Each structure stands twice: as C-alpha cells, then as structure tokens.
Amino acid sequence: MNVKILDLTRQYELVREKVEAAVCEQMRSGAYIGGKAVADFEEKFARYVGAKYAIALNSGTDALVIAMKALGIGRGDEVITTPFTFFATAETVAMIGATPVFVDVCEDTYNIDPSKIEKRITSRTKAILPVHIFGQPADMDSINAIAKKHNLFVIEDACQAVGSSIGGRMIGSVGDAACFSFFPTKNLGGFGDGGMITTSDEKTATICRAYREHGGAQNGAKARFYLDGVKDELAGEASNNPLYNPYKYYNYLIAYNSRLDAIQARVLDVKLDYLDGFNARRTQIAAFYEKELGNIEGVRTPHARAGVKPVWHQYAICVEEKDRLGQFLASKNIGSAAFYPVPLHLQKAFDYLGYKDGDLPVAEKITKETVCLPIFPELTQEELDYIVAEIKEFYRK
Hints:
The protein contains 13 helices and 13 strands. The strands form three sheets. A seven-stranded mixed sheet has the order 1-9-8-5-4-2-3, sandwiched between helices. The chain has a three-stranded antiparallel sheet with strand order 7-6-11, with no helix packed on it. Helix 1 crosses helix 9 and helix 10 packs parallel to helix 13. 47% of the residues are buried. The mean pLDDT is 96.
C-alpha cells in the first residue's frame, strides 16, 4: 500500500463538476481581476468566520504584511510571536521593519504560552501575533486579556486554522485582525495561491484594501486620512462627472499589488461549501489516531483544550525517535512530514536577534520530536488501519 501525506487529486474529483463549471463561467465573463466574484467570496467568507469585513489577497504572507501595516506597525516596533510556526509568520514582521520577539510554546498544544508573554513586553511592543498552529486555536482569552491590559493589537495567524473555533467563536473573529492562507495544501485550498484578512473594524478594512491595490483610488484617499489625517481633496468630484473617475490614477500610499484572482475566488467560493464536512472528517481521523496511538509508550499525541474546536490541518505526534520513525514510515510507503525542524529563533535569517540554543526549550524540544501523519479528508479506513498498524509494529520492535 502507498499512502501519501496529502493527495489533492482525490479532493479535486469530489469538487470537480462544480469547480469546473464556476471557472469556465468566470473565464467566459472576461472579468479576471477583482469584480463580483471576489466581492461575493469576501462577503461569504466574512459571514462564515463572523467578521464584518474580509479583504481577499494573493497570499497568506501578504495578508500578514498588510494587516500589520494597516494597524500602524512598522520600523522600531516589536511584535511578540511564536518560534514554532512556518517562517512567514516572523518573516513578515521583519519585512515591515519591526522586530519579532519570540515566546516559548505550550508542550501540549504547540501554541504560544500566554504565561510567558508579559515578561517579554517592552515600551516598543505593538502587537501579539499568535499562530493557531496545525489548526489548533491558541489561548485567545488569555492573549486578548494581556493585549487589553497593555494596549496592544492582536493579529491572528489563522493560515492553518480556517473553520476552527474557541468558546463558540470562529477563529478569524477574535482578534483585531486575522490572516488566512488558501495555499492548495490548506484545509480550504485554492488551485493556486491566495489569502484573506478578516476584521470587524472599518478603518482597518479600508486601509487593507488600499494597501492591496497600490494605495490608490477612494480607498487610498480614505486610508491616507486614517493614517495621516490628510483630508480627501477630490471628495465629491466623481459624482459630478459620471464618465470620469478622478481617483483612477491618484495614489496615496506606497503599497502593494496583492489581489486575489477572480478565478481563484470562484474556486474557493465553491470549496467553502464543503469545508465543514472536510474538517469534520479530519476530526474523525484525529480521534482514530488518538484511540489507536494514544496509549503507546513513547508517543505523545496532541490534545485540544477545553472549549476549543480544532480543524487538524496537521496531526503531529511527538516521539523521541523522530528520524527513525520517519524513515521507517517511508520504507512502508507511508508519507509523513517533519514540521518544523528548525525553530524560528534559531533560523539563520534571525541570527541578528541574538538567540541561542536553550533560550526557548519547549519549542526546541518539539522541533526535534514532531512527526506529522496523513490526515487529509479523503483517506480511507483501510489506509488509516495500515498507518497505525505499521506505527505499532515500529514500537513493538
């Protein structure tokens, strides 16, 4: 038997008829950038996560950059975040001229440890950037309480957590802004790259829209007013001449070109209808792994906190024999992944921050132990039985 860590072709077959119809319709329309398809998906996604606004972008990475800039974070500021995540989380902090400040994680959830945040807050701290790693929501109640006490922003890195919730509230609606990725491997994945920012603050949403499209037009003018207090000198002119939009070539911010393609919006719009079902299947698979592997000596399985509904983007077990187990699974044609082998505070790109081995011991330990098992929704029971049987055989030996 050959079990891949992920097989996107299976999911494509499930959605193929509806997706192909939607894509072909969009191609016939001649509208490929922005327009109704993107606006409709933004509205649908905002409703889904319980936020007032959603701003579609070309990647989760750009979502992080633009969300932070929209909140006024930049050079000289500090952003507290986790070292156990994909590189983009901290990379984007550095990209805007701010400094990532790493705080160790909890051993059971792999998420940032709220009990260690306050001691890292300084006069330059501007925001907390928790990551809902592997689809497991971070302790947002504690994080939001700390942020409120110190007048900090909270930006959710929800790139792996679409559809998860905490205390009945959907992830994407519990911070000042949230960032999502629609990379094809995500729980809600496109047929290319894509991202989204959600927020319930109109000012933040307007600035994000301006940064998305070269800082131009009406959103650019509004964003300049919000950021710099400069009034819009063209206000009212567009309505006086319906054949000419005086804003078209006026730009107010140095910004980005980060638009979600209309075709990707149609793909994601279709797949969003399937998301809860896909996530429910991931939950079933996680429960099966817990039942079969949870009592094996030497294997530590992940656990959700009370009141939290994870979506199991990855199912990461912790084992001391990480490399040996990975090699054994490969010999049995079972895909696995080692997310993440290097904690961010020890990445070469962040040498200038001065961290060293031992500074964040829990994250460093986890990176040496995590093995991610296949958990995509289309896995068959026969494949799951094979995976757990081989893991049990490994530990019998």
